[in-house]
Amino acid sequence: MELGRPDMEPVIEVENLVAGYGATRILDGVSFEVQPREVLVVLGTSGCGKTTLLRHLIGLLRPTSGSVRLFGRDVAAIPEEELDQLRARFGVAFQSGALFNSITVAENVALPMRERGLPAETVPALVRMKLSLVGLADAGQKMPSQLSGGMRKRVALARALALDPEIVFFDEPSAGLDPVTAAGLDRLILQLRDLLDITVVVVTHELASIRAIADRALMLAQGRVLFDGPLAEVDDARDPRVRRFFRREPEEPAGIRPQADSLSL
Ligand SMILES: Nc1ncnc2c1ncn2[C@@H]1O[C@H](COP(=O)(O)OP(=O)(O)OP(=O)(O)O)[C@@H](O)[C@H]1O
Ligand SMILES: [Mg+2]
Of 216, 112, 226, which is closest to residue 161 (Cα–Cα)? Predict the structure, then answer.
């Protein structure tokens, strides 16, 4: 008798992931799971390996050891054509936005649909739907260069949603945006989760965003998971680096701690 509820099986399972570039190890035994409809925020200092982790989650890179399973399938071990099927089940908005500048916004969003071979006559209506989802119904005919940073991020999100994915990966959605635009994007992410039942993995180190959207936070440092749990627990985290991050306190550099007598002038 199966006791676990099938709808509660994790959509992402990362087990002891060890990975890097050439001889440089970036991830050194990372394990975690993501449940359906969860918003997981991956955070950590710049260069700690968040984008690298994301590349592994979507099967762009192969791990040195360990595994990544999406919907129960090991992304590094399945044949290329099955990976293609799997790719239709998730969407990615990369850190750079990565829009093609020589084609319109609508054509950018249409790209995954065309690659997937959706009937050409249905594409324009679908594109309009995706663009209205992100609040850009009127921007289809614009060129990416005519958009603001926040609009570009939303187009990237619309493109990530092109094939009705079950998981959306979003790398730094609010980096470089003003707080109001960033908050709008946060709200959009939550609306999409509620409206479309998607699981969301967001990389960000914007504290306000993390507090607004995260069900759970996963903090990386030195290639390992420093914290994995609900936001409510970060203040009680055992590792001081976690508490410092959330209180926005600087690292204490060794050796320059003020001496009591040097302070008494
Ligand atoms: N293609 C690559 N080839 C070699 N090294 C890389 C490559 N991409 C990233 N790195 C290195 O891997 C480490 C982790 O990079 P990564 O981009 O994953 O960090 P990050 O946590 O996303 O940082 P940020 O917050 O600045 O985006 C860095 O030291 C980086 O220089
Ligand atoms: Mg990054």
Answer: 112
